[in-house]
Design brief:
single chain; 407 residues; alpha/beta; D-Maltodextrin-Binding Protein, domain 2; 2 domains; 11-stranded mixed β-sheet
Length: 407
């Protein structure tokens, strides 16, 4: 999950990132790398560090906030240099688990904190019966539409692919300067586009048995449909470079009529000083049943040969972070959905819209991030989309990817 990309390699609150150690003052150091979700992420963590260290004088917490553009490179470089963080907040975990770099998450998370999590979220980080990461937050995706534009163009809210194409045609005829539909096939989140279209055509990344099915007939048809929308002039002109944030800015400015976006979009628009008369609907489907995309990020703990005292310090960190009031404040500030049952109950009671989004999570599909090949698949489907935008044959591109991943 990503909201606002930072400039520069990292927004750092900790200059050194060495594994947890006892300091000269007999304090235990905990070093955390955290992803930057929005404009307030770094400030929130700075306050968290101050409060945590004051409340726990025997622990010295360091948190380094890194932009989504850079976090994978930063983390992999640290690992290669033998400087893995103690705790990492990121979306992927399977590669690290497959390389025996992680501890089972229950080794460092208390039973009280662990029991707060939605079981469906924990299952996304399970390999061979062991859970290797704990969810930090989630988001669900839906279609947002500009009510004023659709009304002016005489368009009903589309629910099928045929209706979506017809709506795009009418909006373009109404005002050629508008982008009827927003598509992000960038390296930032192009895998989400693959999910939106393939899942809503009966396809996807894997079959019911967990086998990769990247070149299925349904997937080829789905990606070709999306490419046809681009080639017909119904979308933003540069899907390979227009990120979700660019599209959200266009939607906020009244330039894009419809797009798929997370539940945090209204907060994003308001933060940008824009106002849009918008509606929310299910993602258009070609199967008669819309599938929403769920996205979840995680905390994981690297195996840095900890003492019992050091493990206890990391447990204290997680307990402090997942304190109901503190955690709910953080999720609400970032504009995402809670990964804890207690957080969900609190936010749903306070916000009717949040309650609806939390209900949507039950029907979401998630990326197959527990599979070790996921990082390669994620980049692979983005490459397929970008090459298809340049005129490549979708079937051949997906055949090559399937062969590369599954043999």
């Amino acid at each position: 999950m990503k909201q606002v990309l930072a400039t520069g390699a990292a927004l750092s609150m900790a200059l050194s990132m060495t594994p947890v150690t006892a300091s000269a003052a007999d304090k235990v150091d905990i070093n955390v790398i955290a992803a930057q979700y929005g404009q307030q992420t770094a400030d929130w963590w700075a306050n968290f560090v101050t409060e945590f260290n004051e409340a726990n004088p025997d622990i010295n917490l360091n948190v380094e906030v890194v932009s989504w553009n850079d976090i994978y490179t930063v983390v992999n470089t640290r690992i290669a240099n033998g400087e893995a963080p103690d705790v990492l907040n990121i979306d992927v975990f399977a590669d690290y688990q497959a390389d025996d770099l992680l501890l089972p998450i229950q080794d460092v998370v208390s039973e009280e904190t662990y029991s707060k999590m939605y079981d469906a979220f924990l299952a996304q980080s399970e390999v061979d019966g062991t859970v290797w990461a704990i969810p930090d937050l989630a988001s669900a995706r839906a279609m947002y539409y500009n009510k004023d534009i659709l009304d002016a163009a005489g368009v009903e809210v589309p629910t099928t692919w045929d209706e979506l194409k017809d709506a795009c045609e009418k909006i373009k005829a109404y005002d050629d300067s508008l982008y009827p539909w927003g598509i992000d096939m960038t390296t930032d989140e192009g895998q989400a586009a693959f999910a939106y279209y393939t899942w809503n055509n009966g396809g996807g990344f894997v079959d019911d048995d967990g086998n990769w099915t990247l070149n299925s007939e349904q997937n080829v048809e789905a990606i070709q449909y999306a490419i046809d929308l681009v080639n017909s002039g119904y979308t933003n002109t540069d899907p390979a470079n227009d990120t979700r944030y660019d599209l959200q800015d266009m939607f906020g400015a009244g330039k894009v009529a419809m797009l798929i976006a997370p539940n945090s979009l209204p907060t994003y628009i308001a933060t940008g000083g824009n106002e849009v008369n918008y509606g929310v609907a299910s993602i258009p489907s070609n199967t008669g049943e819309s599938v929403s995309a769920g996205v979840m990020d995680r905390f994981m703990c690297f195996d840095n040969d900890y003492s019992d005292e050091e493990k206890a310090a990391i447990t204290t960190f997680f307990d402090y972070f997942y304190d109901d009031a503190r955690y709910t404040e953080w999720v609400d500030m970032e504009g995402f959905l809670p990964a804890t049952k207690t957080g969900g109950e609190a936010l749903a009671a306070a916000n009717e819209d949040m309650a609806s989004w939390i209900d949507i999570l039950d029907s979401c599909k998630f990326y197959p991030t527990a599979k070790a090949e996921w990082a390669d698949v994620k980049q692979g489907v983005i490459n397929v989309e970008q090459n298809a935008l340049l005129g490549g044959d979708v079937q051949e591109l997906l055949d090559d990817l399937q062969s590369e991943i599954a043999g």
